[in-house]
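#dry-run=false #mode=assembly
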Amino acid sequence: MGHAYTPGLKVTKRAVVRKQRLLPIKGDVLVKKGDKVKPNDIVAKTELPGIVLPVNLANRLGVLPADVPSIVTIKEDQRVEAETTIATSKSFFGLFTNEYKTPIASTLESVSNITGQLILRGDPIPVEVRAYITGTVTEIFPEEGVMIEEVAAYIQGIFGIGGEVDGTLEVISETLDDVVDEHKIKPEHKGKILVAGSLVTGAALNKAVEYGVSGIITGGFEDQDLKAFLGYDIGVAITGTEEKGISLVVTEGFGQIKMAPRTFNLLKSHNGHLVSINGSTQIRAGVIRPEVIIPLGEELQADIPSAESEGAALKIGAYLRIIRRPNFGEIGVVTELPPDPTKLDSGTYARILKLKLNKNGEEVIVPRSNVEMIEE
Amino acid sequence: MSDENKKNLDINVIVATDCGSTTTKAILIQKIQDETGKWVYRQTFRGEAPTTVEAPFEDVTMGVLNAINELEDLSGLKILDDDNNIIRPAKGKIGTDVYISTSSAGGGLQMMVTGVVRNMSAESAERAALAAGAIVMDVISANDKRLAHEQIERIRQLRPDMMLLAGGIDGGTKSHVMEMTELVSAAAPQPRLGGLLPIIYAGNQDVVEAVKDKLGAKTDLSIVDNVRPTLDDENIAPARDKIHDLFMEHVMAQAPGYKKLMKMTDVPIMPTPGAVGLIMEEIAKRDGINVVGVDIGGATTDVFSVFDTKFNRTVSANLGMSYSISNVFAEAGLPNVMRWVPFNMNEKQLRNSIKNKMIRPTTIPQKLEDLVLEQAVAKEALRLSFVQHREFATELKGTQKKRTISDAFAQGGGDGSLINMMRLDMLVGSGGVLSHAPKRVQTALMLLDSFQPEGFTTLTVDSIFMMPQLGVLTEISPEAAVQVFERDCIIYLGESIAPVGHAKKKDDIIAEYKIEMPDGKIITEKLKYGSMKKYPLAVGEKAKLTITPNAKFDMGAGKGKSMTKEVSGGVVGLIIDGRGRPLNLPTEASERVRKLTEWMEELEIYPTKVFKDNKEV
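#status=ok
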């Protein structure tokens, strides 16, 4: 059997974070191995093929498709500026001249004598890849991109929106229970990454966008607020391309759920530091979780564990979080791992474990698929 | 060895695997003697292991060998030699006669199709791709209202594994077909997994040379017969077979470890849903019945149907029980999901709990209320998938049809759908939420509420989802596939008996029925409108049922016409569904909850006392 439990989210005080920064298609790598980079440095660039514009010339100029090649005045692969006449035809015994001008600067890709269609291709579109994190270039993938590594504190969230941003970390909640409402968001938070406790309200998120806050990290978020904020309901958890002017990293889940103490304390200990966050989430095969990366400014060393290392095994004494009702969000220690399936309240038979809850020492039964490891 | 020779082999042991995106499942099928001494094929053992397509393993055969190792441990057979080669043929406790596999790992087969007219050639192309087991990412046609540059952008973005180009009947339009070909050529699509993009051309055969000129150099082009040679004919088999070949040669060959796996199997590896389609067709053909099957997964729901030997498959890409659960909500709407739930829940909490399932898809309901909610979502996912299927599984559009006066009055024929629930004989459910429901009667109710079978319908569920393996097995031994399907794969839930029609008042008597049970007992009852009844009748047992609906209701013979049928039992038994068709639930909340509770108590679905004690969950 594979893992009978959800592999946990990483909350690591010190690890080597490795980020592959790749171009969508081949291009030029601008840095070399050993270079130190900052989040906004451009490490690679390329040009995407321009937009393709099919033009039915036969219809436009009123000629037969078979005659189209003979009236086009430029050659295939020739580039012309916008508003260049590239085809002319005469009609009504040569009294009228019809012509076709290019709408954009473009290259002629092909001419068809069957459909009478031209294919024009616009100028290439430049694409640049940022470093995203502060670190050292450790590997070059020729024409494709680079690997950047840094020693950092690393936190994975469960869900997020918005892409890669960086800024100074500011913890604005006293405790991991705190709710951040709009009154706690101030103009001086512009460009920062804020940390909340159990919840950020929808009004607070809107206020944060208004003040130019770069990102927010929170324990929980209401789905109703998310729908209102985005203007649509998320059907499938594939995010990261929202352009709402802010990135959000939710560490625990939907609803008001206090942030795990380990996560909250780690963020608190880095208050005022520069961090990179990314809200991109993809919950499918090849899962992508949102993340918070806090550079520690240390040199890379072989003995520092990787942030991608395999998680610990499920065993008695392991530290777990419950990820479904009842007791959702509670943390506890495994006290027993009975091998046989047990009947749940829902009537389902499932393999379970016994967990002693941190909050009150109560021992509860939880299906193994409803817990996740809290990984170091 | 030719396929024909393989069919004639004396096969005693079969190993079959299905490489899913997370788990690789292996089953062992052996020829053994049944209780009467007859030699039959039975599925005897199964093993599973995590699929190893992705990093760090990147070799699908590791997972396959692990799953087969588990089979060896459980069965005591030795199937692999010391170098991990499959030992053939079977001799005593060593080796297997046949090894076959299906695969949906790595996201399955993702295709785009093009055609000239959306609901004619493009639809035929789509049907061919779906029948081959593909996920159709988009259908592009000359009349789909997008501008050409938008269509090109779409082809570029989606990066399909393969494309199928159709359009034009033979001797028909050339310019429109070439326009689409030029569009594809301009987009210069790059396949997901590298290499040249496999493109199948199955359109107007008069422009084959021009298509070759346009695409021959920059893509891996194959030409097959037109999927729509005339307006009145559809010919999807050549395109479907070509997709299977190319899936093997190009798509799978690029995926980690598949070259090795291809060498291990006796017949080509097939996309999982394509194989499920084959077993459905085989069952329908052998018994001469109409079948609807559904496989509801975490991300997608597949619906298959065979009506009058015509096969159709649809994939509802974003209707599923975990990754896509939130989308089921978005598409069905909150009231539609909640109408199946016999208690109140506040919307804020409900929304959060659905989203939490989406982000933690592997969790299972621990509380009964959560189970009820998940099953309610399942009913909507199934219903919506089936609506899509009905709309797709139609007679060919664009044909000239003679209609008689009786056609004009016929039920359900107006939309041209091939699906006629009154003529459906068997409904097969599979997928976690149906196969692993704590009680089988819950599965039966999910099928009843979502598909709303009419008249007499046999309800079944796939026990451990071995239909894919059995589908490939039909290529080698249809006999073995069918035997295992009936004895080990499906579980008979029972027979649904549902008169079609509506009464004016609740509790009106809508039919009278008589059941002659196998022990000689005779049950005579009147069926009240809006009621449900369940009678135990074990698997393998048969009873004779006579039902006489009133003048407003139809059991298949016409309104008010009596019908007598021998019905088969199952783990649930006979369910007489007097709720009428189409099924309308009471709109008033307290009445709806009262009716739901009544049905749930009659059928023993849930211990409803829990909900009564707890008004809002």
